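Our platform keeps sequence and structure together, in a single record for each protein. Such a record has a labelled line for the sequence and another for the backbone structure tokens. This encoding replaces a full spatial description with a residue-level series of whole-number codes. Below, we set out a record of this kind in full and without editing:
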Amino acid sequence: MSFNANQWQSKLADACRNYQMPLPQYHVVSDRRGGRTAWSCRVEVGGELIDARFWFDGKNLENAKEDAAEVALNRLNSTRSPSSATSRSSIW
């Protein structure tokens, strides 16, 4: 799996600006698995924490952020319409 650097993170930030929401906040999480540690990410958007789909090796942590951003952007776009951009509601 390969991600373009910050592509989804940038798109998510742009969508948040468009919907007049606070910028996303990323939270890195880890899970000890045997002798190794797996890394993932959660992104906070509109008061919701959205988990990335996958876990990554530590050297691919940016991929975890991109994965979380992609999931969040898809969710945001599927629950909001352009006409709701002026709405201040925190409910998706």
